[in-house]
Amino acid sequence: MQALVLNGINEPLQLQEVPTPTPGPGEVLVRLHAAALNHRDVWIQKGQYAGLKFPCILGSDGAGTVAELGEGADEALRDQRVLINPGMHWGDNPAAQAKDFQILGLPQDGTFAEYVCVPAQYVHPLPTHLSFAQAAALPLGGLTAYRALFTRAGLQPGERVLVSGVGGGVALLALQFAVAVGADVWVTSSSEEKIKQAKELGAKGGINYQTDNWPATLTKQAGGGFKVIIDSAAGPGFNNLIDAAAPGGRIVFYGATQGDIPEVSARKIFWKQLSVLGSSMGTEQDFAGLLTLISEKKLVPVIDKTFPLAEGEAALRHMDAGAQFGKIILEIVPA
Description:
Elements: E1 2-5, E2 14-17, E3 27-36, H1 39-45, E4 61-69, E5 81-84, E6 87-88, E7 102-103, E8 115-119, E9 123-125, H2 132-136, H3 139-152, E10 160-163, H4 169-180, E11 184-189, H5 192-200, E12 205-208, H6 214-222, E13 226-231, H7 238-244, E14 245-253, H8 266-271, E15 275-278, H9 284-297, E16 303-308, H10 312-321, E17 327-331
Parallel strand pairs: 10-11, 10-13, 11-12, 13-14, 14-15, 16-17
Antiparallel strand pairs: 1-2, 3-4, 3-8, 3-17, 4-5, 5-9, 6-7
Helix pairs in contact: 3-4, 3-9, 6-7
């Protein structure tokens, strides 16, 4: 089969012929039609991720058809259109992942290839209203957004929500999910165009986070502070989120693209009775909830740009540039 292979830190992805994997007991072989990029893939390429090994095939998100079954896999799965839950071996504690939790694409070879083997329990029927490309845009980002909003923040209809850094896959899906359940959603971005696009997806409004004292301006526009804030940046700007939060609010962060938080306004946190929560990926139950929400609300992930598999390195550079609005897709089987 053909696959995009990463042979070392800061090496370009190379399209190579590699052996097609054989499904083991309880596994299925998925013939991939589409895969999606995540920032995780860029960080692995740059050596900024734990557990690196080379060569490796990146890619956590994928959708396709079940081509072969390993011993013990349900025969009913054969030829089914499926998407893959990339979060594997969470463990028995729904509050936090076990030590052997893995994300598809490292250490196990991932979806930037014509075929991938995964345990049968992690393939799910494709939502009937989605194409393979749309479905491939969903798993990692959708699972992360779903757990942050609903499992961790406990979002309720009618609450005022702030999604920071809108434009990336997780943030956009969080926006779509929150709008779908009846929340009032506002966004931040450094791009006025991205704020405009977010409003077209149902956001009430937004603000450029480079604006001086933006929390005061935005909370005035929104009619008050935010009960739920979803963030991926952390870093020095985190105290702005504390200022933007309503009393009793919940701030959930699922990334730290701006690094660690240097100083925290502890007095504001306890005086405002805030909850500051970490979140990462999600359980199999979270994934099932995600699929239910997607199917019931007929939600469609936003796709920024599609590349053929052979142009995977160009796709990574497009992601690394940070200008995208939505998911970046690798087309493996032409639509």
